[in-house]
Write a structure and sequence with these properties.
Chain lengths: ~60, ~200
């Protein structure tokens, strides 16, 4: 299935958000997630199904001003 | 970061729409476990100036959801009033465009905000390039300075950070000491009594 991961197209096997994080090697890391522009809390990632062309944002802390 | 025992202020830097900013705020709240959010809704890609309309809309949504919104705003008084009306308890007007280092482009507008919002914490956010700019803002009665580029891009960031700390302390002390009123004409500071008549 093709999704957009942080803006870049990518082929993935996962069909839920939590399994996608495992597939991307991000399991257990301090990240926040959004699907198609809507925030998905950590507690709801297992229920969040993924569909073709979904836009997935995975954000990690970074410094700035 | 939690072991440092500091208050973290996540922000919505780079967001151009209300939806982006609100979603980013939700993500930040979960990541950093804080209701604080610096709200940026950018309206122009060259000047990075805030979109005042989107800013008020996003601030209203986030305040209603229990966020403590620190809005990155202009020095516009009416916009500031709207932000306070929707629940902001802090205002963060720019001095100049983000990363420009130009200092306080509109001291009159910033002074006016201080006058009209004596009880709202005011932070100059953006445009500060030199410690003297920070001191000037503090002399106007501002409560704090938010800066990044002026330190990050200095040749010696650690020394520059120390210089800013001194400038902020000096400016704050000067404000608390009630500065003299400037005047156009000279005024002798040495008493005439006791002066020799030659």
């Amino acid at each position: 299935m093709k999704i957009f991961y942080n803006g870049d197209p990518r082929e993935v096997q996962s069909t839920t958000l939590d399994s996608l994080l495992v597939e991307l090697g991000l399991e257990g890391q301090a990240v926040a997630t959004a699907v198609n522009g809507d925030f998905v809390p950590r507690s709801l990632r297992t229920q969040q199904c993924l569909n073709e062309e979904d836009r997935i944002e995975v954000v990690a802390p970074m410094q700035g001003g | 970061m939690q072991t440092l025992s500091v208050h973290l202020l996540p922000n919505t830097a780079g967001c151009y729409s209300v939806k982006e900013a609100v979603t980013t705020a939700h993500m930040a709240r979960e990541l950093f476990d804080t209701p604080w959010i610096k709200l940026e809704v950018i309206g122009h890609s060259d000047t990075l100036q805030p979109d005042p309309f989107g800013l008020v809309e996003a601030a209203k949504i986030l305040c209603e959801e229990g966020f403590e919104v620190f809005p990155y705003t202009t020095e516009d008084l009416v916009l500031a009033e709207r932000l306070v009306e929707v629940g902001c308890r802090v205002l963060m007007p720019w001095g100049a465009p983000i990363g420009s280092g130009l200092g306080l482009n509109n001291p009159y507008g910033l002074r006016s905000l201080r006058h009209y919002f004596p009880d709202i914490p005011l932070v100059v956010d953006a445009g500060i390039g030199l410690p003297s700019h920070a001191a000037q803002a503090m002399e106007l009665g501002y409560d704090a300075i938010l800066l990044n580029t002026a330190v990050a891009k200095a040749g010696d960031p650690v020394q520059m950070a120390k210089a800013f700390a001194l400038a902020v302390e000096a400016g704050r002390s000067a404000y608390q000491a009630s500065p003299m009123e400037p005047r156009d004409m000279a005024s002798p500071s040495t008493p005439v009594i006791g002066k020799a008549w030659l």
